[in-house]
Amino acid sequence: MCAERARQSAAKPSEDTTKELRRRLGRWLKERREARGLTQADLAEKLGLRYYSFVSQVENGLGRIPQDLYAPWADALGIGAREFGWTVLAHLEPGLYEMLGEDAPSPLGNGRP
């Protein structure tokens, strides 16, 4: 039982790591949005969001994309659903991402988060 608890504790990212992963995901999302020539307001409109500030919060690592917006967000940015899903998972749920192991592709094309 103690070994299991220690393993779980080791797998859980620290608060600083969690914040950095969110910021890294936000930068990736921002780069993809800008590559499509979209402003935050444009993306918010495509997603049916009332305020573009939500896009800003996500891109700055301060907010999370609601799951019901994963597919529309990926589509708006021209990202395949699989790539988008794995990348979000790697940065918001790194323990689950690691647990999936070999099935998980490297996010952002540059190694594990």
| DSSP strand content | under 5%
Low-confidence stretches: 1-10, 109-113
Distance between the termini: 28 Å
Radius of gyration over alpha carbons? 15 Å
> Structural class of the helices, strands and pairings?
mainly alpha
Order of helices and strands: HHHHHHH
Count of alpha and pi helical runs: 7
Question: How many strands, what sense, and barrel or not for the largest sheet?
Answer: none
Shape: globular
Q: What would the average pLDDT be, to the nearest integer?
A: 85
**Total DSSP E strands:** 0
Model description:
- This protein has 113 residues and is mostly helical.
- 65% of the residues lie in helices and 0% in strands.
- The protein contains seven helices and no strands.
- It has helices at residues 2-11, 15-35, 40-47, 53-59, 70-77, 81-92, 94-100.
- Helix 2 (15-35) runs antiparallel to helix 6 and helix 3 packs across helix 4 (53-59).
- It is globular.
- The model is unreliable at 1-10 and 109-113 (pLDDT under 50).
Essential attributes:
113 residues; mainly alpha; 7 helices; disordered C terminus
List the helices and strands and how they pair.
Elements: H1 2-11, H2 15-35, H3 40-47, H4 53-59, H5 70-77, H6 81-92, H7 94-100
What can be said about this structure in brief?
The chain has 113 residues and is mainly α. The protein has helices at 2-11, 15-35, 40-47, 53-59, 70-77, 81-92, 94-100.
